[in-house]
Specification:
With about 325 residues, the chain is α/β, with parallel strands linked by helices. Helices cover about 35% and strands about 15% of the residues. Helix 1 crosses helix 2, helix 3 crosses helix 5 and helix 7 packs across helix 8.
Length: about 325
């Protein structure tokens, strides 16, 4: 029996549900050496709020062959101010960013096999005077990588060309360069991390009916189709541009391994409506595995001990699956 994979798990916003989710994750029987990168006393208080017993030990980087449910290793990163559930404190912004930096650097140095992140409160970090746009951007900058956001359930994978933009800004952001970059990253990650020898990628059009041959918009004709043709000539298997309203019907799903959508709400409502508690956020293009929950800090639930840990458990399970797949031969599509 070999050593368990070492997964760094960040608690996110101290005043949110993240610390309680970590306690629930530790109570599972998942075969992982979980290392909580956060404040030790924060976890102790979260366990009390959950009515759970937790055994915390300092992480010494030693291998672990088995883990008992209810145990958790900790890389201690102290809070600046004691948390008040439901009330984020900008004084703790630096703590949150330090946990992310420690987890990312640990993955890149080989200390961790992957990082799993609980939700954070972007507004609280920005209120502290630190410019911050999200986990994805932070890890991209830290590792100097070009990245793409993907959300995945056991049945469906959706990657985004643009993420958190106003709808009025999306068309201008869909350039030949941004689309080609996203498609190349998704293709490479489906091959290298998910094991597909020739990934089949469905590409959604931007406009209704994928532009209706230019009658409902020219982005498909002027930008998207030329990019797809160029990438097909280089060996990528790309389907589309497809009308978004029919791309997710069962007959279409059999044709592809992942979908690339042009903007956030074009495809994610489909995914979340059918698998909200099983959907995982992944950052593609990083030099390490990063998964996350698909929900926010739920400040109204923080401190109640009632937060549902399903998404964090799914994120940890997917991270473990991706770690295990590293040494598995690429399968034929």
């Amino acid at each position: 029996m070999g050593a368990l994979p070492r997964l760094a798990v960040t608690a996110g916003e101290p005043a949110g549900i993240g610390p309680e989710l970590l306690i629930r994750l530790a109570a599972t029987s998942l075969a992982a050496n979980f290392v909580a990168v956060t404040d030790r006393a924060l976890l102790e208080r979260a366990a009390q709020r959950c009515g759970a017993t937790i055994e915390l030990t300092d992480d010494d980087s030693s291998p672990l062959l088995q883990r008992r449910p209810g145990t958790l290793r900790v890389q201690h990163v102290p809070l600046a101010a004691t948390e008040r559930p439901g009330h984020p404190d900008p004084l703790n912004a630096r703590h949150v960013l330090t946990t992310l930096a420690e987890a990312a650097d640990g993955c890149m140095s080989g200390r961790y096999d992957a990082v799993v992140t609980a939700p954070l409160q972007k507004s609280s970090i920005n209120d502290s005077g630190i410019r911050f746009s999200g986990h994805t951007e932070f890890f991209a900058e830290r590792s100097r990588s070009d990245v793409v956001m993907m959300l995945a359930s056991p049945e469906l994978r959706v990657a985004l060309v643009t993420t958190h933009l106003p709808l009025s800004a999306v068309s201008a952001a869909i350039t030949s360069e941004s689309l080609a970059r996203a498609l190349r990253i998704v293709h490479a990650e489906l091959r290298d991390k998910f094991g597909y020898s020739q990934p089949r990628i469905a590409v959604l059009g931007l406009n209704p009916h994928a532009g209706e041959e230019g009658h409902l918009g020219r982005e498909e004709i002027d930008t998207m189709i030329p990019v797809l043709e160029t990438l097909r000539a280089s060996g990528l298997t790309l389907i589309g541009p497809l009308p978004a309203d029919t791309a997710f019907v069962p007959a279409q799903r059999e044709r592809y391994d992942a979908v690339v959508a042009m903007y956030h709400d074009q495809a994610l409502p489909v995914l979340k409506s059918e698998a909200f508690d099983r959907t995982v956020n992944l950052t593609l293009g990083l030099p390490f595995i990063r998964t996350s929950v698909d929900h926010g800090t739920a400040l109204d639930l923080a401190g109640s001990g009632r937060a549902d840990p399903s998404s964090l458990i799914a994120a940890a399970s997917m991270a473990l699956a991706l770690v295990a797949r590293r040494n598995v031969p690429i399968r034929q599509a």
